[in-house]
């Protein structure tokens, strides 16, 4: 059997084996999941140095947990959960707690380019509070379903849906001033609006 | 339901048929609805691209494996550029009288007696926590314990003692440059000493931050007060007050600079990416480019005598100058590993160390090299 066809569960079992086997298994698990875990942490913290620290802690905790009797059915989700707790602790210690309603988005620049969208998005993301940022990151950056998110966070699906939407609203609000520079303005904007209003009026006149 | 929410739910696949019809009708009539749709679509696209664009820095991978005492798999080692090495820039600096500088891409704080040295991550990981504690260094722990005076995400990331000598290094991961005032270095042994020494205690005074110009990759102390540091994009900074304040200097190059060394208080050389070499003869006030004959990244430069200097870099590149750094010849090392640490005992005998445990030595001034296993 080729190494890449080995399941995560097999690899986790190998983490309890001889040292050489452990090294191989850990390297493979790391290769499979580190990028996504790091991306999650990076978007949650927005700081590279701290993200690298937490990536290290995440895999250290994962290794220690996996060597015990713990049964891990979804490795990536498990890693994200570890990373989440570490991010949460980091936030508690390091960040001021700003309510989503009290946020003020800084003006980034007068002119932005299309490829600046990611930069503004990430900046806006950093200004969300932990709960909203987390919901948004899990949904859009990690692609989890609400049900999966619910299992990972312990929140209800409804609460998570609401958080994702509220986070998106806030981020949209941050992006809106740059819509034109980002090429998002609809060329037919006012013309179509005027014609659609005319259409509305004329359709109302019809029997 | 607002049209923004309607679009959001549509993209999430959560609209009823009736709501969908309402959405399509609105899209056909209202430009702002279409703009909103575009905005949300672009956001989703950008986020998806962002996820794939994030890569784990090689030094972070190295730290993960080192923390478990595992060797980093070869495929990551090979991929890692030297500039990502957490200990790049370690081979620098004389012991400063009252201050030390944190520098490096991942943050590197050199706390050493006389010597520059290199401590591979896996050796750091092996060094027992007890050593640091028995050295009675307040604030230093094996993992993530805070250094007094640090802030934000500054932590002690790694520490180590090599071969039971008093070579000690403390790596601090952080973004900005910080100068940490230190008590006088009494008790710090040099690399040859075998007697017990007392490492410096950490100061109560908070770290001072100079975050305007990112990380320093290497620093060199001209005097206890005057420090010259090199950074990315050809940036050179000089401090006249032991690192408390810094002034930028024009290097005349735009490549990242990774290594710097002065023979005396006025004449020095800095090296960096794309085979960049710049030299100064006025204590760093002005810099001139020197041809290197290579485009490889150059990591470290060392003067052995006023005339003889060596540079090592990526892909096994070694350069030697016998003209005080005004011209350089490429030496054949016979290896392709990235080299980053040099220890020359004199102009002829020296050892060079690099990635993947590379170690070569010469006894004839670099004409021939032997690989040391």
Task: Produce the secondary structure layout.
The complex is a heterodimer of chains A (207) and B (373).
Chain A: H1 8-14, H2 19-45, H3 48-66, H4 75-94, H5 117-126, H6 130-141, H7 146-153, H8 157-175, H9 189-205
Helix pairs in contact in A: 1-2, 2-3, 2-4, 2-6, 3-4, 5-8, 6-8
Chain B: H1 3-11, H2 17-29, H3 31-53, H4 58-67, H5 74-79, E1 99-103, E2 108-111, H6 121-126, H7 129-134, E3 155-161, E4 168-173, E5 177-181, E6 208-210, E7 216-221, E8 227-231, E9 236-239, E10 247-249, E11 257-262, E12 268-272, E13 276-280, E14 288-290, E15 298-303, E16 309-313, E17 318-321, E18 329-331, E19 339-344, E20 350-354, E21 359-362, E22 370-371
Antiparallel strand pairs in B: 1-2, 1-5, 2-4, 3-4, 5-6, 7-8, 8-9, 9-10, 11-12, 12-13, 13-14, 15-16, 16-17, 17-18, 19-20, 20-21, 21-22
Helix pairs in contact in B: 1-2, 1-3, 2-3
Instruction: Indicate the overall shape of chain B.
Output: elongated
C-alpha Rg of chain A (nearest Å): 23 Å
Strand composition percent of chain B: 25-35%
Computed over alpha carbons, the radius of gyration of chain B is 25 Å
From N to C, what is the helix and strand string of chain A? HHHHHHHHH
Describe the structure.
The complex is a heterodimer of chains A (about 210) and B (about 375). Chain A has about 210 residues and is an all-alpha fold. Helices cover about 65% and strands about 0% of the residues of chain A. Chain A is built from nine helices and no strands. In chain A, helix 2 packs antiparallel against helix 3 and helix 5 crosses helix 8. Chain B is an alpha+beta fold and about 375 residues long. Helices cover about 20% and strands about 25% of the residues of chain B. Chain B is built from seven helices and 22 strands. In chain B, helix 1 packs across helix 2 and helix 1 packs across helix 3.
